[in-house]
Request: fold
Amino acid sequence: MGKENAPQAAWIIVADRANMERCAKHGVFGLNAKAMLEKMRPGERLVAYLRGEKVFGGLGSITEPYYLDDKPLFEGGLYPDRIGIKLELLPKERSLDVWSVIDELDFASNKVNWWASLVGGVRRIPVSDYEKIAARFGQAIRR
Reply:
């Protein structure tokens, strides 16, 4: 991908495995966070963080900008603020333990309490962090 087509941002999206599976199946991520989701653009990269498992569980991209939808999709809430996504989730045994890569990532300045930066459900990260995580997924898949 040339520099002119390179994604300008990457994001971590946060949910439990059941809701992240719904996201992947329906091609949508929802949250009660209009201001944050409005910043996300088609073509930007995604990392799926699975709350409860403390793993990065998949990679994807944004396919559709922010929109509002009241169709029930998720457990635990309506989450009408949404973006379109394409997401490939890995099985639990192929997920990437965050502790195995956290020291290499710039988004978390506090390496002990890195999880605090994900509390809001979505976090912008440097594209270089996305690339490091994607490379580690590649290593895990080749094993």
About this structure: The chain has one domain: 8-142.
